[in-house]
Amino acid sequence: MQVASLVLGILAAIGMLVGFFPCFGAFNWINIPFSVIGLIVSVIALATAGDTPKGGSIAGLVCCICALIFGIIRLILGGGVL
Q1: Global pTM?
Q2: Boundaries of domain holding 26
Q3: How many structural domains compose the chain?
Q4: Cys bridge to 9: 33, 34, 43, 60, which one at CB 3.0-4.6 A?
């Protein structure tokens, strides 16, 4: 579960970077729900980790939160949210 969390976090971060390019700002409308799904998976992975190392789920959580926040800011500043 932690690997899935990390993969979703990395993909969300890559999607956020693609959304920063001009003419690709609308990609954030796809990336924000993807980041929320990754956030949910990361929280579940973190909660069920037990005694195992939690680095992957924490990294996925941080990547998803950053992608979510910066994606929303990009949509607001770019005029995608009216």
Answers
A1: 0.88
A2: 1-50
A3: 1
A4: 60
